[in-house]
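2024-03-11 09:14:02 INFO worker-7 job=invfold-0412 stage=load source=structure_tokens
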């Protein structure tokens, strides 16, 4: 049996990750709900460390940086009056970095993210944040529809265990790997932070 290939590989698309100096870095939902709130994630500590390192390198490279902040309902996850709504210390925006509040998984839906990125020059996107299978995936898929090329920083995203509809549990590690594999088929280049060029 032949080695499987992604649709991007079969199409001969360049799968090299975007360089920070040429990209817009979008940090998705790096919020306290995932670190100390209702939705603790597997591997969130190392992912937060990678986000902090990514932001430091992006700032040094003068990359465009946008922070996405999810706003939930009162009393639920990401309640805007709760600690869970706050951005984590590792992802604290610097002066001049845009914060966009969203209400849906796709960070483009109902927001001005597309306009902000186009004003910055419609650069390739580098995505990091939470959760791999939800808001990161939804945003990467929408980005393709809008004409962006996307890189996802594999060690700067994380997710959680989910119930398997067929019974049992799909562990966060399996879900994370599966979500990244699905995105690599058509929607994004996938690379660890160490492989992202400055």
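2024-03-11 09:14:09 INFO worker-7 stage=emit residues=198
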């Amino acid at each position: 049996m032949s080695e499987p290939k992604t649709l991007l590989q079969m199409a001969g698309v360049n799968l090299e990750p975007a360089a920070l100096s040429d990209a817009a870095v979008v940090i998705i939902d790096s919020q306290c709900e995932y670190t100390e709130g209702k939705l603790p994630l597997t591997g969130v500590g190392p992912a937060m460390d990678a986000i902090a390192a990514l932001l430091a390198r992006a700032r040094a490279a003068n990359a465009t940086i946008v922070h996405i902040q999810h706003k939930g309902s009162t009393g639920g996850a990401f309640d805007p009056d709760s600690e869970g709504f706050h951005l984590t210390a590792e992802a604290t925006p610097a002066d001049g970095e845009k914060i966009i509040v969203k209400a849906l998984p796709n960070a483009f839906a109902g927001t001005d993210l597309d306009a902000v990125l186009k004003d910055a020059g419609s650069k390739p996107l580098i995505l990091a944040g939470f959760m791999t299978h939800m808001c990161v995936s939804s945003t990467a898929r929408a980005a393709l529809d809008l004409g962006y090329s996307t890189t996802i920083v594999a060690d700067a995203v994380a997710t959680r265990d989910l119930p398997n509809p067929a019974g049992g549990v799909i562990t966060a590690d399996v879900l994370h790997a599966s979500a990244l594999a699905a995105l690599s088929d058509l929607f994004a280049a996938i690379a660890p932070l160490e492989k992202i060029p400055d």
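2024-03-11 09:14:09 INFO worker-7 stage=report msg="Helices lie at 7-10, 33-36, 44-60, 113-119, 132-145, 172-186."
2024-03-11 09:14:10 INFO worker-7 job finished
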